[in-house]
Amino acid sequence: MPSAMKKIIILALLGICVGTSLRAQNNFAISYSIAMPTGDLNTFIGTTSFRGIAFDYRYTVRDNVAIGFSAAMNTFYESKSRDTYTVDNISLTGKQYRYSNNIPLLATATYYLSPEEPLKPFVSLGIGTMYSRRNTDMNLYTVELEAWNFALQPEIGIQYELSDMTALHLSLKYMHGFQAGNELTSDQSYFSLNVGFAFF
Amino acid sequence: MKTKLTIVLPLMVLLGACYPNGPEYVEDADVVATSYDVKYDFKSQSTFAMPDQIVVDVEIEQGDTTYEYMAPKFATVILDAIQKDMEALGWERVDIDEDPDVLLTPAAISSTTYFYSYWYDWWYGGWYGGWGWYYPPYYTVSSYTTGTMILVMADPNQASESPINRSQAVWTAAANGLLTGYYDIARVTDALHQAFAQSPYLKTN
Question: Which of A106, A132, A188, B138 could bond A70 through an S-S bridge, CB–CB 3.0 to 4.6 Å?
Answer without folding.
Answer: A106
